Each structure stands twice: as structure tokens, then as C-alpha cells.
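Write out the bound-state structure for glutamic acid.
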Amino acid sequence: MVNSLPSYLGRLAPSPTGHLHLGHARTFWIAAERARAGGGELLLRNDDLDALRFRLDFVAAMIEDLRWLGFTWREPVVTQSSRMPRYRAVLEQLHAARLIFPCTRTRRDVLEAIGAPHEGGADDEPVYPPQFRPPADAPLPPLGDKATVNWRFRVPDGEEIAFTDGRFGPQRATAGRDFGDFLVWRKDDVPSYQLSCAVDDAELGITEVVRGADLIRSTFRQLLLIRALGRAAPAYYHAPLMLDDRGERLAKRHDALSLRTLRAQGVTPAEIIAKFAAETT
Ligand code: GLU
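---
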């Protein structure tokens, strides 16, 4: 008899660059609820590739906070920094398919060339100016053993990319207009979030990605990468972002709402979960 795969595999993918806050907890709770409803389970992915902001104590803290809230996941934890050979293999595959190009422009060059603040917000990449892109038939320099320049994915200009979000319904974006050639590998020889996330979601058998609505635009990029790898894309469910009482997005700097702070104030996991559950009914 063949063992059947779980019908649903989701993931929690925190970055150990700060303490988790109530907004993370709500998104993860939604992920856990969807996994439960789908009769499946979750992976915990430690997105530890941001060397500048990474701290080992944040890894331990996030695991402890998630356990405190009662989340469970399939062991072992997937640590992105231990998957570098996989990401590199994908970079080589994209290079062989001529889907990427080297880029020596700075973020400032890009912002000056587009001459306007871009829509996506500070976390998102501005649309890469087409005049900076080398012609498609230009000779492609070798990757070298270590990247010393940024590498970008050449998006199919004018193509509409669409998916149906589990929460927000049909989503579409036009490549080259709503988002441009995006970073896949950085000059400090680290994969971008888009590449590592797309590779992991596709290769680890994730059936549904549940994450914050700020990442909807990233989904279009990740869908292009997953397609380039010849893999099946997961389903996506973007959770509405939690706002503070001034209507601003909760960010890690709002330490007052970190799970650690709430816990120190005597708030219980049951109270937190009850609040989330009450909001969604
Ligand atoms: N580590 C990423 C973040 O915290 C994960 C995003 C995702 O779920 O794809 O923003």
C-alpha cells in the first residue's frame, strides 16, 4: 500500500529578526486553523537569511513564543541557511535558462530613474526601469562561484499573472508594469526572499501558503519563479494585516504588542486566541 501524502501542508515562516508580535500570532493562528480544517499539518520554516538583522536568540524566542501559543508543527524545523545548496542549484538553473541577468545598479539608481515613490510600500521592490535591463540576447556573464553582483529575474513584460486568493479572491498583476525584474540573488551571495521562499514552498510540498496581505505582490513574483522551475504552485491565502489603534501596521518596533510583553503582563494564550476567534466570527 502506498502511504498517502497529507492532504494539507501549510507553513509558518517567521524571520528571526525581532520578537513576534500579535500580528504574526494572528496570521499563524489563521494558518493553524486552515491546516486543522484541511486535515493536515504545518511546517515551521526559520527564514534566517537576513544576516544583518538575524540573531540566534530570536530563533529560540520565536520557537518558544509559538509553543507558548499552542502551535504545533512537523519536526524538524526547516532552516533556510541550511538549504543554500538547493537555492544555488536553482540559481544555476535560472541562469542556464537565461531567465536572469546581472545588475550593478543600486536601489538609489532605480528610485532616481523611476522618479516617483513606488506604490508597493517600503517593503516592496520598485519596478525595475526597463532601460537598465540588458537586451535579452546580450551575452550572459557566468555566475562564478560566489555572486559579486545582484542577479534579477527578467519578467515576461506585459503578461498578466493571476491567482485566486483564498481570502481576497481573484488577483492579477501585469509583469513589467505592476512589478518589474526582481532580485533573486544578492551581491553578498545570498538568495533573495523571493527565491528562497518560492523554492521552499514548491519543493517542500506546501499545499497552501498563509501569510500577511503585504505579500500579495510578492506572490506574483514567486509564481513566476515556481513556473520557471517547472513546479506546481501552492494555493495562497493572504490574511488581512493587523493594525494598531492608530490604524498603522503592527511592526516589530511596536514592542508593546510583542508576545513577550503581553506574556509578561499576564495575558494568557487562551485570551489571545479567543480574541482572534471572536474577530473572525
Ligand atoms: N519570513 C517572511 C516574513 O516574515 C515570510 C514571508 C512568507 O510567509 O512568505 O515576512
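---
The chain is about 30% helix and 20% strand.
The radius of gyration is 19 Å.
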